[in-house]
Amino acid sequence: xxxxxxxxxxxxxxxxxxxxxERAAYGRVVNRVVQANYDxxxxxxxxxxxxxxxxxxxxxxxxxxxxxxxxxxxxxxxxTQLSIRFNGTELPGALAGRISRAMNRIASGFTFDIPFDPxxxxxxxxxxxxxxxxxxxxxxxxxxxxxxxxxxxxSASGDGTVATIECRTTPGEMLECMGMRSSxxxxxxxxxxxxxxxxxxxxxxxxxxxxxxGGIVEGExxxxxxxxxxxxxxxxxxxxxxxxxxxxxxxxxLTSRPDGNLLLTRANTQDAxxxxxxxxxxxxxxxxxxxxxxxRYRKWMxxxxxxxxxxxxxxxxDKTVTRDRGFxxxxxxxxxxxxxxxxKWRMAKSIAESTSIPVTVSGWRTPDGELWAENMKGIITGxxxxxxxxxxxxxxxxxxxxxxxxxxxxLMVVLPESxxxxxxxxxxxxxGMPK
Length: 435
Fold this sequence. Notes:
Blueprint: E1 8-11, H1 18-26, H2 33-36, H3 38-41, E2 59-62, E3 82-86, E4 89-90, E5 95-102, E6 109-116, H4 121-126, E7 134-139, E8 142-157, E9 160-168, E10 185-186, H5 192-200, E11 207-211, E12 214-217, E13 231-232, H6 239-250, E14 253-256, E15 262-265, E16 276-278, E17 284-287, E18 290-291, E19 299-306, E20 309-317, E21 326-330, H7 339-354, E22 355-362, E23 377-382, E24 387-403, E25 406-414
Parallel strand pairs: 11-15, 16-23, 19-21
Antiparallel strand pairs: 1-2, 3-4, 3-7, 5-6, 5-24, 6-9, 7-8, 8-9, 10-13, 11-12, 14-15, 17-22, 18-22, 19-20, 22-25, 23-24, 24-25
């Protein structure tokens, strides 16, 4: 009898459950079949798993499960199966090491080791230094990172040679490069997205815009249509530093998409929480916290140049800081109406820079089957590390590793408002008594 296939009807067999069907069709549980067959299953009783009971002969539609960024169906033998394609060639012997993504960095990346045979002509060409080959990392059949090789290391011993290849997304080149364009001046009236597209074009990078974690837009969107005044990039300023500086003044984030292109987005503050992590409960293995008072300020001043003379244009106060501490920065690329926004962004971002909560969890996927990813919203609680109450957070960065204990995800979470122009509401997680 036919096995479940994505995009087709499937006839239920005796003993089938929603989860066994999804594992057969997708390689893992993705919680899509019930929703796709709601009318048929809405009045069914539920199993011990809390899922609708199926009967032999039921006709179920198995929807195509697609990557949230790319129009690609996802299949795999199991939900954390790793596969790497390097310059279009599958690398069955490759072992991925550090895998990292972050919402506050323009580049993500991964490292892999592979046995290297110096007498193999194909390997000699494939792993030759300075070839900048394209590398794609799939987890459970889902494209997680597209990158280019940027660092090559070879270690030889009596057991043979191992090649270690570090790969990072194409926007990573913008961290070092400048001088890629003939003009460094942008006329009045250009949006951040348009400027990003101009800067990224020489790298072969496409810029997209979005709000939160969804709704990818290839062109202009309402959240990126706000315009700049005349903007200039210093010829010695890297392209990444320039774009991040402009994004900061508007309260936006620049991050790499799984396909290696750039995504201009806001912090994911509106979605419902996608996970709940409690210290002492599975899947949490460890939790910590760090609070750096040297990065918090009470008085914030935005400064612009007028005829070569610096003058304070706007002053705001963070009254949650009890000590009188001041911070001044230049807002040269912020016209009069944007200076206050730039200050609010700096104030809110100081929370992200001063408050960090690392959480280590077992497994690479959320309870709903999604890979842990940056800008994902959830709830955490951890009284022993001064997270005294249920607190909404967003994931700032993710690092996936494997060890003797299995698949491990190291998450860095911050308050959602840390990446907006709105200060977090009190009481803060560290205030009051634990519940």
